[in-house]
Amino acid sequence: MKSKLMIYSWSMNTAVYIHIPFCAQRCSYCDFNTYAGLDNLIPAYVQAVCQEIEMVGQSLPSSYSKKFHTVYFGGGTPSLLSPEDIQKILIALERNLGFDENVEISLEANPGTLSLEKMKAYVDIGINRLSLGFQSANEHELRLLGRIHTLDDVLKSVEFARLAGLRNLNLDLIYGLPGQSLAEWRHTLQVALSLDVEHLSLYSLTIEEGTSLNAQILQGQLPYPDSDFAADCYELARERLASCGYLHYEISNWAKKRSGEEIYFCRHNLQYWKNREYFGFGAGAHGFVNGFRLVNALHPSTYIEKMILAQSYPFPLSAATVIAHPINREEEMRDTVLLGLRLVEQGVGDLEFAQRFGKTLTQAFPREIHRLLRKRLVEWIETDQRRLRLTRFGQLLGNQAFIEFV
Ligand code: SF4
Questions:
Q1: What is the C-alpha separation between 299 and 406, in angstroms, rounded?
Q2: FRET label pair with 87: which of 240, 302, 335, 383, CA 20 to 30 Å apart?
Q3: What is the DSSP secondary-structure string of 225-265?
Q4: Is the pTM of this model over 0.85?
C-alpha cells in the first residue's frame, strides 16, 4: 500500500555556508572551531570572507549563475557580528555569486546577543530565518553548559524576532545532560513548544575530548551521561512534538506543519542531507563543490593571512583551501545513502538515486541493504517512488545503520 508523505523535492541549486568563528565565551561542552576573546579580529575577518567570496566568484563557471538558494551564517556566534558586517558579506555574495529569488538566509544567534533594534536591522538586510541556541529552560543546566544566557534572554529573543517580522524561527535544544531528569527535559520541551516556533533541532549531548565538561566528568565531579536516559528523552520528544503538529523529518530535526502554509524545513540543511553541492567560506569552513570535499584553514588569524596574500586559484579552490579531496562515484553513492537515511520520513528515493547514479540502491549496495533489513534497522516504503528509510527502531540506532556505508 502506498503511504502519503510530505515529500520535498531536491533541488539542483547550490548552498553557501559562512563560518563565523567567534564566541563571547567558550561553552563547557563545545569543541567547534570557535574562539573567545578574538573579537578584535572581526573587521579583518569580515574583509577576508568578502575577499574569498570574490575570489571564488571570479573563477565561477557561468552554469552557477543565480543558483544560490540558501545562505547559512553558522558558528561560533554569527550574531556577534553587527548587521553592517553581515550585510557586507551578503553584498559580496550577491555581487559575486548571485541569489535565487527565493533565497533562504539563516543566521545562528545566541540569546543574550540580540536586541530588538539589532534584530530589525538583520531582517532589513535580508535575514529571513533565525536559529537560536536555546538549549535548556532550566537555569542550572544553562550554567552547567557554560552558556552566557538565561531563559529570560531566550524569551526576549523570540519576542524580538517576532516583532521584527521574522516568520521562520528555529530553536536548538540539548538533552541527555549529566544528572538531568526526565521532568527537567519535559519542562524544556514544554517551554520550547509554548513558543510555537517553526522548527526545532534537538541534540543529544556528546562529551568531546578537551572540553571542560569532559574534564569535570573525568575528575568525578559529574556523572557520564546515560545513553538509555538520552533514548528516553528522544522518545518523549518524538511523542510531544508529533502531538503539537511538528513533522519529524530528520533524526534531530522537526518542522512545523501549519494548515495552508508551507512546511518549515531547513532548506540549507536539506542540501547536506541530499548530498548536494554547497560552498563554504570562512575559517575551517567545509564545502562540497564540483566533486571535491573542501576544507579551509582552521584558525581565523591563519585564514586572514592567507586571504591577505591571496592570488587567483582554479575553481573551486580559494587561497584559504587546505584540503581538496576528490570524491569518486562510489564515495558519492555511499555518502548519498548515509546522509539520506538521516531523513527519517523520506529516506533515500530509489528512482532519484538511479537517476543520479545510473543504478538502483539494491544494485549499488545489495549486501549492505540486506544486512540492515535483516536487523530491522531499515525498511522499504512505497510512496511517490520506492524509498529506503530507517525504521522507528533504526532511528534510535542510526549509527549502526550508517556504519554500513562508511
Ligand atoms: S555558543 Fe555555540 S559555538 Fe560558541 S562556544 Fe557555545 S556551543 Fe560553541
A1: 28
A2: 302
A3: PPHHHHHHHHHHHHHHHHHTTEEEEETTEEEE--TTS----
A4: yes
Segments forming the whole domain that contains residue 202: 14-271
CATH number for the domain that contains residue 258: 3.20.20.70
- Tell me, using a 6 A CB cutoff, whether residue 135 lines ligand 1: no
- The preferred substitution site among 20, 22, 26, 34 for testing ligand 1, maximizing ligand atoms within 8 Å of CB, is 34
Q: Are residues 132 and 244 in the same domain?
A: yes
Q: Is the same domain home to 140 and 235?
A: yes
65 and 207 in one domain? yes
Task: Tell which of 271, 300, 317 closes a domain.
Answer: 271
| Residue 45 lies inside a defined structural domain of this protein | yes
To test the pocket of ligand 1, the residue of 20, 23, 149 to mutate (highest count of ligand atoms within 8 Å of its CB) is 23
Q: Please list the rounded mean pLDDT of every run of 10 residues in the chain (406 residues).
A: 52 89 97 97 98 95 86 97 98 95 96 96 98 98 97 98 97 97 98 98 97 96 95 97 97 92 94 96 97 97 95 92 97 97 96 97 97 97 96 91 92
Cis check for the bond before 316: say yes or no (omega within 30 of 0): yes
Answer yes or no: is 303 within a domain: no
Query: Distance from the CA of 336 to the center of ligand 1, in angstroms?
Result: 29
CA–CA distance, 223 with 179 (Å, rounded to integer) = 7
240: in domain: yes
Assign residue 358 the CATH number of its domain.
1.10.10.920
Ligand 1 contact, 164 CB (< 6 A) = no
Q: Which of 218, 279, 333, 254 is nearest to 71 (CA)?
A: 279
**Nearest alpha carbon, ligand 1 atom 3:** 76
Whether 283 maps to a domain, the answer reads no
What cell does 66 get? 543565480
Name the residue with the closest Cα to ligand 1, atom 2: 76
